[in-house]
Amino acid sequence: MVQEIFKRYEKKYLLTESDCSRLMLTIGGILKPDEYGKHRISNIYFDTPDCLLIRRSLEKPVYKEKLRLRAYGDEICMDSPVFPELKKKYDSVVYKRRIQMNLKEARACFYDGAAVKRQDQIFRELDFTMKRYALKPMAYIAYEREAYICCLDEEIRPTFDRNIVGRSQELELSLGNYGDRILEEGMVLMELKVAEAVPLWLGRILSEMHIFPVSFSKYGTYYQKYLASGSREESHAGQMQKGGRRCA
């Protein structure tokens, strides 16, 4: 069954590949791959034409929200499962609510505004947010993720994201994985997802390895690097080097 509601804390860390290797030597023995293991995640982020949601988010308010369309895997077609998600953060706690559709249905609903024959609570929340802000697709963000579960406590879920790219043109999940690099080559974004605070034993290991939390947003960083100037054309040349495959 697809989990629809999440509540957790998330801590983010920027690592080098060397940091990753050292960390896995230390804690790798108590980690196991989650149900997805190593996989690609692709997202379409929805925002206002002037990027109000991400601009607010970057101001680090007590409350912030974002809406995105997420898919898993390398080849995404119109009948592939996708997940419209509403992600909110209040006082450091992350709340995520999502539903499952196929891509064709999700496009009709969230791109074209077509009526959809479903009225479950989470869909109504998504629909309300879309209409409240008049949201449009604004950015594609994708990355390769390795996801693990801690054998000592399954509420501890480390993930490692590499090759994070973004684009602001051709905002279709089915067009493949290409875009401008968001992180420098050789850097890895680790996220720790926990039900409560990071446990003392794990915090001690990270501290001893000089690995400390950072404030980092994939969409926020892409916005600051490529969209904040107000021109969505600037990065188009780099985006034309397409690394993905189209799926009919």
Automatic annotation (TrEMBL):
One of the GO biological process terms: polyphosphate biosynthetic process
InterPro entries the record matches: CYTH-like_dom_sf, VTC_domain, VTC_sf
Domain VTC: start-end pairs: 7-224
Protein name: Polyphosphate polymerase domain-containing protein
